[in-house]
Structures are given as C-alpha cells and as structure tokens.
Specification:
The chain is an alpha/beta fold. Helices cover 29% and strands 14% of the residues. The radius of gyration is 29 Å and the shape is globular. InterPro entries: F-box-like_dom_sf (IPR036047), F-box_dom (IPR001810), FBXL15_LRR (IPR057207), Leu-rich_rpt_Cys-con_subtyp (IPR006553), LRR_dom_sf (IPR032675).
Length: 644
C-alpha cells in the first residue's frame, strides 16, 4: 500500500504516543481486497503537544518531511528490549540516556535500575526548608534507596510523606540525633520498606531505653532484611523489638559487632541471635555474621537448628577452633542448599572444611575464601566438583600453588565463571595464566593484585583471550612494563605461526570499565599515549606510577572520555597542565585523588573550579605548593561533596 502523504515528524518525544501508535493506521485494521480501490488517507493535522510531565523545557522543533507519521529507530523498541539494553549501561550512562526522550526516561524508572542508585545524605539537616531536602521536594522523580550519615533531624519533615511510599531501603549511619520516636515516625511513612540498616548506631541504642516489648510499632510487613553494622551497644531487648517489627524478615545481618563488650553480655546476645533464628527458621534465607565476635560453640548451636534452609551465609572467625570436628563443618553438612558462601577471614578454615564444601554444596555459585591462610593444594583441588561456580575468591591464601589451582579450575570447562580473584598468591607462576585464559573465556572481573605471576608475557594472554573483561586489577604487579601493555618491543611474541608474529595491546579490551595499575612503576607515557583508548573506562588507578607525566596524561584524557574516577597519587611528575587537561577533557570526572604531588600549584585548583563541573570528591593532601585556602576555593564547585 503506497503511503505518500505529507506529515510532520517530531524529532523530540512530544510528537509520539498521543493517539493511535504507529500513525494513521489502527492495529486491528484488516487487509482490504486487492481489487478494491485504495482510499487516500486524510492528512494528519499538525498539533503541537505541550506535555510537561517530562521535566525538560527545551524547545520543540519540527521538520517537514514526506512520509507517514510512524515511530522509527530506538523509539519504536518494545520496553522489554529497551530494558535489556539499559542493563548493559552503568548508572551514569543510563542517566544520560534518560534525557533522550520520554520513553527512555520512563525506562529509567524501572525498579531494577532505581535500586542500583543510592542517594547519600551526609552531614545535612533533614528539614523541609533547607537544602538538599528542599530541592528534593521539588523533584520530578522518585528513588528507592537512601543512606543518612551524621544527619540532623529537626522536627516534622514532609520529605517522608512525599517519597515514603517509594522507598525500599534505608540506612542510618552514625545519626546521633536519631531517637526511637523519630525512627518510629519515619518507618510509619515507609509502607513498602524492604531493608532497614542501622550502622554505627551506639548512640541510638543508648538513648533507646527502656524497651517496651509489649507495644511494637510500627509493624513493617514488607520488611525482608534487618542489618546491624559496627554497633556494640544494642541489648537483647533491642534485638527482639527490631525483629518483631518485621514479621516477614528473610535476611538477618549482624556484622562487625560485639567487639567492645564483656564476655557475659556477648554470650547473652549470641544466645538471643540463635533463639531468633530458631523462631524465624521457616522464613530465614540469608544470614551475615561476618567480622562479628563469636566462638565455635555458637557455630555448633547454629548447625543444630533443624528445618532451616539457607541460601546465603557470610561468616568470619578469629577465635581458636578445635582441630577435630569444628562447628563450621557441621553447618556445611546441614545447609546443603547454599548458593552464596562467604568465609572471608575465616582463619581456622582447613582443607577438610573446603572438601566438605565441595562435596555438600553442589548448588554453590559464589565462594569467597579471602584470607583463609590454612588452605593448601590438598583442599583447593576439591573445588573442581563445583560445576556451577560463577565467583571464586582465593586471595591471600598464600599456600596455594599451580598444582592445586590447575586441578580445581583449569582442568574443567567453566563457561559460567565470570569473576576470579587471585591477589597476593606467591605460589602461582606465569605458566598458569595461559591455562586460565583458555579455560575461563567469559571472565568479566579478574584480580591479580600483588601476584608475581603477572609479567609482560602473561598479561598479553589476558588481552588475547579475555575480550569480555570489564574490571582488571593489577596493583603491585611490578613486572609489568610498557612492552606488555602495548605489545611493542616484546622479546618474544605471544602468538607465532611460521614467520608471522602477533602481539596485543590493552586497548583491545574494549569493554574495560575499571583498570588498577597502582605500583606498576615501569609504566610510562608510552603506554598512555599508544594503548589507552577506552570508550567505556570509568575508573583508573595510576598511583605510584612514577614515570608518567604531561604527554601521557593529556593523551589519556583525550582518548578515555568516560573516566569518572582517577587516582594519581605519588606520580611526582604530574603538574598543573596535567590537571588542566583532565579537568577540560573529562566532562564526567567525579572523583580525583592527587596526593603528594609536589609540582601542583594554585593553577590546578583554579582549573578544577573552572572546568570540573561534575566533580564530587577531591583529595589534594601533601601538595606543598597548594595554598591553604584551596578548600575554600574548591567550594565554588557546586557538585563538590568532599574535599581533603
């Protein structure tokens, strides 16, 4: 059917979505018989739409074109496809994409994306008439996650009435003015709250006395997680009260607690925690007691709780444990449905416990054993049984060697593994790197910080095979030089077929978003000039790379436009022109660390004030030529949150 009707295309979002989607034809219109004479479609009237629900007041412009008024390009994508595209973007990119049109802006309001963003209120007054609360009350968008750190609560605030129904997670950190009555008032206005966290809340618990267990208010029926962090002043009654507020709690976190209290009080609280777990065993799915002080008897009693099936456990252990039949093994035998297991800094974890993990927990996807220094190759070899493993952390397990790791990971195909952490492992050699690259082709995160196995040749294997890498951490890998990062002047090529030699550069990792090279002192401007061309790189750490200077930093700032966080500490050749280049070219720069740089002067401060319009965090300590009034000058940056 020929459609040669003159119509107007609205290049902004305003012209779409009003009336029948797809232009002058209904979706239910049946095809006419070919013999019938086609009737011309009436011209569509040109109507300027003023839809101010989308909060941008830019001009609406039109172009006169020949053709039907239909959706084209990305504006015509189904929402499901658009959401999948947005999942590949980080938060900053999604915010920028949301400004494109109303349809993309609506996609940003999807629950999954809202939960990834946390609005952090630090050292401000929660009052309707003062910023930033006054600004938020005029906001056109809502949010689901906020954190309040050292804030002042001043009377009634309309903020909770306006945004309370949208909040799903709230964290109170070191809020000295928070009282029980104030917490009750706030929680009553959060009907759909799912996570409540109290961090460094000793002052809050000290003022909350007495605890009236006969009258529990409010009752948060949507509450799924209760977290207490870095707190030592809560009592048994406080625990009972908080748990009673959430009758449907499925996740309990008590981390980094009970460190500065006497032994009888600690035993009493631990007994109460076990009692609560028994009471809620039907609904409880995740517990996190990492870095909290408890003994092996607590773990034994933990394992004795019947009919409790947990999918996530986080434990750390610092006390002495019996060599024969420790409590952690009993827990592993009872909880066979665990999917995520974090035993970081569990100092008494032995090879026999790791063998029990590999034998009993066949559903395991995440295994973190950072700092379990008793593990050896004998135990690590058993990891080969975990065929669903996606995340593995063996950092700082310094007794592991090539033999154990090869049998655990490399000797089996693992397409599902995406994250591997192997920092501070002196027993690994560069011979294992090639096997990792050939076996774990879908890795997106890899950490070799402080490992001697990383050199110019082994790092070439990463660039050749691991094309999906998004996070690469090589801090302290002092053997890496320009030759390895650029692929030039290598003594031996990585791939050599007949007379053809092939090398690789780090810029071939096109999806790289975070790069850590702190302490790689052999890296020079040559790498920054010839190999730093990343369109998606957001975080870069070049601290202690003492040979980089102005030419390399200028090239980097031009070729890595998405950079948001940079650390140049102890790079003593960095001067004012380097800072000017970063401030001018990196429009997304949010965090900048410039510690102990003797060449910086007031010109660097002025450049940041003039050009760094998105800067939020700046650290310029140890720069002797920076004037003392630099903090006052930096306050002119409207987006700045913290300066040191």
């Amino acid at each position: 059917m020929e459609m040669s009707i003159e119509s107007w295309f609205n290049l902004h979002y305003y012209g779409f979505g009003h009336g029948v989607d797809g232009g002058g034809y209904d979706d239910d219109e049946e095809e006419e018989d070919e013999s019938e004479e086609e009737k011309p479609t009436p011209k569509e009237p040109i109507v300027e739409v003023d839809d101010r629900e989308f909060p941008f007041h830019d001009d609406v412009f039109y172009i006169n074109l020949k053709g039907p008024r239909v959706r084209t390009g990305f504006d015509n994508l189904p929402m499901e496809i658009l959401l999948n595209i947005f999942r590949f973007l980080n938060g900053v990119d999604r915010d920028a994409a949301a400004l494109t049109c109303k349809r993309w802006f609506d996609a940003m309001g999807y629950r999954e994306f809202l939960d990834e963003v946390c609005f952090h209120f630090e050292e401000v007054s929660i009052c309707d008439g003062t910023p930033p609360i006054a600004l938020f009350l005029r906001s056109f968008r809502h949010f689901s996650n906020i954190k309040l750190t050292r804030v002042q609560f001043n009377g009634y605030c309309e903020f909770w009435d306006v945004f309370g129904e949208y909040l799903r997670e709230i964290t109170f950190c070191n809020c000295i003015t928070l009282t029980k009555s104030k917490l009750t008032m706030i929680l009553k206005r959060l009907p759909f709250l799912e996570c409540l966290a109290l961090e460094e809340a000793d002052e809050f618990f000290k003022t909350w006395t007495p605890v009236e267990l006969k009258r529990i208010e409010p009752v948060c029926r949507c509450l799924r997680k209760l977290a207490l962090r870095k707190s030592n002043a809560f009592t048994v009654d406080h625990l009972y009260y908080l748990v009673a507020m959430g009758p449907n709690i499925s996740a309990l976190e008590i981390s980094k607690c009970l460190k500065q209290i006497d032994a009888p009080t600690r035993v009493k609280i631990l007994t109460t925690i076990l009692t609560i777990m028994k009471m809620r065993k039907k609904k409880l799915q995740a517990v996190d007691f990492s870095y909290t002080m408890y003994d092996d008897l607590f773990l034994k009693q933990f394992a004795e709780i019947e009919n409790m099936s947990l999918s996530q456990i986080s434990l750390s252990f610092f006390e002495r444990a019996p060599i024969k039949d420790p409590g952690i093994i009993d827990i592993l035998r009872c909880q066979s449905a665990i999917v995520h297991l974090d035993l970081s800094s569990f100092l008494n974890l032995t090879d026999f416990a790791l063998i029990e993990i590999s034998t009993s927990l066949r559903m395991l996807k995440t295994l973190k054993l950072n700092g379990c220094w008793l593990l050896t190759d004998f135990g690590v070899e058993s990891i080969y049984k975990l065929d669903r493993l996606q995340v593995l952390d063996l950092s700082d397990c310094d007794k592991i060697s090539d033999r154990g790791f090869m049998k655990a990971i490399v000797d089996r195909r693992r397409d599902c593994m995406s994250q591997l952490y192997l920092s501070m492992l002196p027993g690994l050699t560069d011979s294992v790197i090639l096997k990792i690259c050939l076996t774990l082709l879908n890795l997106t995160v890899i950490d070799f910080c402080g490992s001697d196995c990383m050199n110019d040749t082994s790092v070439q294997f990463l660039f050749c095979y691991l094309k999906c890498l998004r996070i690469l951490r090589l801090n302290g890998c002092v053997k890496i030089s320009d030759a390895g990062l650029t692929g030039e002047n290598l003594p031996v090529a990585v791939i050599e077929i007949w007379d053809t030699q092939t090398t690789f550069a780090i810029c071939e990792l096109r999806s790289l978003q975070e790069l850590q090279l702190s302490g790689c002192f052999k890296v020079t401007d040559f790498t920054l000039t010839h190999a730093f061309r990343f369109r998606e790189l957001r975080e870069l750490n070049l601290a202690h790379c003492v040979q980089i200077s102005e030419p390399g930093i200028e090239a980097m700032s031009l070729n890595c436009p998405a950079l948001e966080q940079i650390d140049m500490s102890d790079c003593f050749h960095v001067n004012d022109r380097c800072v000017v280049a970063m401030a001018k070219n990196l429009v997304r720069l949010r965090s900048l660390k410039l510690v102990r740089l003797p060449l910086l002067t007031v010109a660097s401060v002025d450049a940041l004030v003039e050009y760094a319009k998105a800067l939020r965090y700046i650290n310029i300590r140890g720069c002797p030529k920076i004037p003392k009034d630099a903090p006052e000058r930096l306050k002119k940056i409207s987006t700045l949150r913290t300066s040191e």
